[in-house]
TrEMBL record:
Native species: viral metagenome
Keywords on record: Exonuclease, Hydrolase, Nuclease
GO biological process, one term: nuclear-transcribed mRNA catabolic process
Family: Belongs to the 5'-3' exonuclease family.
Residues annotated as domain Xrn1 helical: 255-343, 372-521
Protein name: Xrn1 N-terminal domain-containing protein
Molecular-function GO term, any one: 5'-3' RNA exonuclease activity
Cellular component aspect of the GO annotation: nucleus
Record-annotated membrane-spanning stretches: none
Residue ranges of domain Xrn1 N-terminal in the record: 1-214
InterPro entries: 5_3_exoribonuclease, Xrn1_helical, Xrn1_N
Length: 536
């Protein structure tokens, strides 16, 4: 998922003179050496498409629906492979994710289950699209049979399938960055277009040869299939030209450093692992703001240093990879604009946007919606109300864990260099920029904490069964578990205090000043992995 609205923002900003959409014929003209399919970004829309076409007067068994969806996914896979005609095809399926991503998946899957209306006549639980479920095992088996069939048909390409540990986009980047002597005229085509893929592509050694495409499912012209398209080289050049054009001193910094700095700046706008800084909203100029304060910080140090210390990163030293002095300056300047943001821009945003304009909240009986603005950002003492509402009792600790998170994400984007799978940000929201910068005043203590952090070192992995228990609501879990594991769940059901804590039947959802339901925040207890290790 990544940063909300990131793609639409950068397209409007950098690519307004270019075509966003290309058709099948145009797509087939690229000389593609490698095609990478971010497969989960295909499975989900294919399941929606298939379910929308079914006859609601008929009854379907669970197995029938599974088979229909899998067959549709495979048909669409054939379609994409035939159009792009690459020499090497890589099908990358999400495996077990790091705990930080699992936290986000837990929220998303609860929303998927709880926000689904009961009036749907054909019921299929999309939470099955999670590593370790019977559905994914069935898909894996059929995918290998499908590949064997393609080879029997005489298709002249190499094809690789990956269901192993890790997110699909990160696994594909590990392969891309290890490619040897790729002809500079050849393209690497990635099917998928979320913000994480864009960031990872910008960081790749082959960034100038990567193109990203995705089926434009919103296209109304059904007679002509269109694809959304992004040339990473063009985006990279646009970012570099903007930074250099706004500050001449940036000439002292190399292009790679500008891109890495840009990616770290974008982390302040939120991603799958950390929420956005409260006063940075991309639709309200958040990206422009961080670039502005970045330029200001470059001017302060005469362009002699960058935000990301690439020499340390290249040596594998993730714990000294961020220029903390520069990070302090950036956050300090963002913090100085907080009151203005909440008194002016935020007030307009609050007036114009309301999630409950077009959503009937009473249709969800097991959900309590926080909709009244109890924080009142545009009034005095909004910080105290914010921290109270989100249960952040130790602001300094939240600041410390947020900074640690920036290091973890930078290492994760950079080939998962720390190989840590257990870190996650434990608070419901992140501190204000002004509070983080205040905490950074004593940078000696912060640096000491980062140097001693076990969360930036190799850890054990989470198992697929542990991930299932952590991300799925009880109803979804009971549908996907095999009989022997179901017995363990039934034993857990008798532990009512544990069940009520980790598998709530009623949930609280924060929709304060949210524009859409998908932006809502679910209040859920963090799963204690030690309990899972005892049960499983």
């Amino acid at each position: 998922m990544g940063i909300a609205y990131f793609f639409s923002h950068i397209y409007k900003k950098y690519n307004s003179d270019n075509d966003l959409l290309i058709d099948e014929k145009q797509l087939s003209t690229f000389d593609v050496e490698c095609l990478f399919l971010d497969y989960n970004s295909m499975i989900h829309p294919c399941s929606h498409q298939l379910l929308a076409t079914l006859d609601e007067t008929k009854e379907y068994s669970v197995d029938e629906l599974d088979d229909l969806i899998i067959n549709h996914v495979l048909d669409y896979t054939r379609y994409v492979i035939n159009i792009i005609n690459a020499r090497n095809v890589y099908i990358m399926v999400d495996g077990v994710a790091p705990r930080a991503k699992i936290q986000q998946q837990r929220s998303r899957r609860y929303k998927s289950k709880m926000f689904k209306k009961d009036d749907n006549k054909i019921k299929w639980d999309s939470n099955k699209i999670t590593p370790g479920t019977c559905f994914m095992k069935k898909l894996k088996d059929k995918l290998y049979l499908f590949i064997a069939k393609l080879k029997d048909e005489g298709h002249d390409f190499n094809i690789h399938i990956d269901f192993d540990y890790g997110e699909g986009e990160h696994k594909m980047m590990n392969i891309i960055n290890k490619l040897n002597n790729l002809d500079e005229c050849k393209k690497i085509c990635i099917y998928g277009l979320d913000a994480d893929l864009i960031m990872l592509s910008l960081m790749s050694v082959y960034s100038s040869q990567i193109i990203l495409v995705r089926d434009n499912s919103s296209n109304e012209n059904t007679n002509k299939k269109m694809f959304t398209y992004l040339n990473v080289k063009s985006l990279e050049e646009s970012i570099i030209n903007e930074i250099r054009g706004r500050y001449e001193g940036a000439l002292l910094i190399n292009n790679r450093n500008i891109i890495y700095d840009y990616i770290l700046l974008c982390m302040l706008l939120g991603n799958d692992f950390l929420e956005h800084i409260p006063s940075l909203i991309i639709k309200d100029g958040g990206l422009n703001m961080v670039i502005k304060v970045y330029i200001k910080s470059l001017d302060k140090n005469k362009g002699e240093s960058s935000l990301v210390k690439l020499d340390e990163l290249d040596r594998g030293n993730i714990k000294d990879s961020i220029n903390m002095d520069m990070l302090y300056t950036i956050l300090y300047n963002i913090g100085n604009s907080e009151d203005y943001f909440y008194k002016s821009i935020y007030s307009v945003y609050k007036t114009n946007n309301s999630i409950y304009k077009d959503v009937k909240l009473d249709e969800y009986p097991n959900i309590y919606f926080y909709k009244d603005d109890c924080i009142k950002y545009n009034q005095m003492n909004y910080k105290n109300r914010y921290y109270t509402f989100y249960g952040i009792g130790d602001i300094k600790d939240a600041c410390k864990k947020y900074i640690e998170g920036l290091y973890w994400i930078l290492g994760y984007y950079n080939g998962h260099m720390h190989n840590n799978w257990l870190w996650y940000y434990k608070y419901m929201n992140v501190p204000f920029a002004s509070d983080i910068s205040e905490y950074l005043r004593n940078r000696t203590d912060v640096k000491r904490y980062i140097m001693d952090s076990q969360n930036l070192e190799k850890s054990k992995r989470i198992t697929s069964m542990q991930q299932l228990w952590m991300v799925l609501p009880k109803e979804s879990l009971m549908e996907v578990l095999e009989d022997d594991i179901l017995m363990k769940l039934k034993r857990l059901l008798k532990m009512k205090d544990v069940m009520n804590k980790y598998f709530p039947e009623d949930i609280c959802v924060d929709i304060i000043n949210k524009e859409y339901l998908w932006q809502s925040k679910v209040f859920l207890e963090d799963f204690d992995i030690n309990i899972l290790e005892m049960i499983l």
